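ok so i was messing around last nite and threw this chain in just to see what happens. nothing serious, just curious
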Amino acid sequence: MDWLDQVAAAVDEDILPSAIGWLNYTVETELLMDEINDSTTRISHLVDAAKQYSQLDRAPFRAVDVHELLDSTLLMLSGKIGKRIKVVKDYDRTLPKIPAYPAELNQVWTNLIDNAAAAMNSAGGEGTLTVRTAADHDRLVVEFRDTGVGIPAEDRERIFDPFFTTKPVGEGTGLGLDISWRIVVNKHHGSIQVESEPGDTRFQVLLPLTAVEEESA
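result:
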């Protein structure tokens, strides 16, 4: 290498091995420091995502940016999603913040993303999860679209019923969509819609841009 030739020309022959050893140590140290810095940055991002996901440091009802909630949930579930599923974010960043219970919305996102990943794993473990946000008159839409096996027509009317699940025994409680429905409809005065066929399933969560803080079961 050119830099080794430069070192050899700059130092005496009898100390060249020591000089090379010192340079090797210095380079390894610099590389290690870079790795530590990168790891520290990644850990910091994960901690921020965990705080955002759990909302432990936030008021229970507040104006939230749904994109921040979606990003933190996707990061927290990245291991569950896996590397064979491509995640596409189709966000409308011009959407305003909405009054909501952020921790509970994260629970909704978790349930829908988990179901989408399971559907694609059932279809071979590969696919695309598209998370889209948009405006619909006086409501904000969050859509989760997956390329999984789809939901049979005879099951679509029952998927929000308590304890109903299409997952294998031991893999689903049948409460995820029921809880999500309660959070969206009862707590946020919104709605959930589903359209499904093999290779194209879409869950749409519609949330009002303005809402009244209200507790209901």
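not much to say yet. Residues 16-54 form the longest helix (39 residues).
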